Amino acid sequence: MAGNGIANGARVALLAVQVSALAVGAARAQGTVPAEVPVQKVTQGPAPSPAAPHSGPAQGELVTRAGYFYIGGRYQKLGDKTVMVGQMFVQSRTPARITQPYPVVMVHGLAQTGVNYLATADGRPGWVQRFVEKGFQVYVVDQVGRGRSGTNPEVYGPYDRLGTRSLERTYTAPEVYDLYPQAKLHTRWPGGPGVQGNAAFDQFFASQVPFLANSQQTEEWVDPALVALLEKIGPAILLTHGQAALFGWAASDARPDLVKAHVAVEPSGPPFFDVQFRGGKEFWEKAGDGRARAYGLTRMPLTFDPPVKAPEDLVVVQDAKGSEPKGSDSKAGDGRIRCWLQGEPARALPNLAKVPTVLVTAEASFHAAYDACTAAFLTQAGAKPDVIQLADRGLRGNGHMMMLETNSDAVADLLAEWLAGRVK
Questions:
Q1: How far from the centroid of its chain's Cα atoms is residue 95's Cα?
Q2: 76: three-class secondary structure by DSSP
Q3: CA pseudo-torsion sign 256, 257, 261, 262
Q4: What are the angstrom distances between the C-alpha of 412 and each of 134, 177, 313, 360, 417?
Q5: Alpha helices, H only, 170-214
Q6: What is the pTM of this model?
Q7: Residue 212 DSSP SS3
Q8: What domains sit in the chain, N to C, each tagged with a CATH number?
Q9: pLDDT of 363-422, one tens digit each?
């Protein structure tokens, strides 16, 4: 199978001397992380031959450090054995010179792990490398109960996983299935449509892992772990993708003093209900009668004003027509769902309003049909997020997995540009 991007990306990260990041995290929390860290150099490219001599960095050379640690976790008796539960794996990369005031915490979405950010599926450096090169310290997590954080059905409950067809039609080859109006615009998966047999798709699918079947339990486990990470490393920028926005909203709500900005790349949505796409003129429908996200953005409670004692306190109404993002020159027209928002007078989300936030949407993703609803919900609640439509910035043809697609560096640069203008 061609294309070893994911495997190479993981190998590249492990080429660094594995040092404890606990001291770095604690130092950052106290504002004592040095601006320059003379440690082992991390380079991109294939691993050296075992027979090749290791020359090491030149004397005095400032180089990059990689490490990892676990946050959270507690011991629990399980039958006749004691296990650890609730721990979250955190991988760190520290540039030679930290030139940015706050680190970036990258949180992956459904069925994925932090591997998504290490390298692309066709072997190019990933978003971690791009942000490190810009002077950011970067932390990458694996959700609790998944990937390198460890799986345990006895503790976390049943698991599920996605098959090739689910990934193709939503993530990597929407143009093949054409289930929503924007799908045919997708052109950015490496090597053509991302279907089984495409080398980059095969590498991507190899990286998929089982995930907790119960979405609310996922939030219950990950929310406190992410807040604990922020409390350890100090103020930071959250960069979330898809499902991970659920945890980003919760962390911003719980500790707006520690979240300096939230970059929500295609956040889980739309507010309140899930939708499913079926193609044709009436291309979408509500999935089920129950609220998928009881508090609009999340399943777990958020801080509303006036307070919400139960989800039923939030009155939900539906727009008469699809919602266009403010300032967009999108040509999708009626390729928008009808949003579910709060009934007026709407309750505010005062803590989320304190955190600079941007919603990032790709031209050809299924999120193009409803991310405007998430923006409208936040605006209605006083949070007023910024909105970046990639197509409006000249980045066309992207799908949901934009960090793996052919213009991934350009997308990362756009996010860094927004941070430069909004984070103080």
A1: 21
A2: strand
A3: negative
A4: 10, 28, 39, 11, 9
A5: 174-177, 199-206
A6: 0.85
A7: strand
A8: 5-42+63-422 (3.40.50.1820)
A9: 999 999 999 999 999 999 999 999 999 999 999 999 999 999 999 999 999 999 999 999
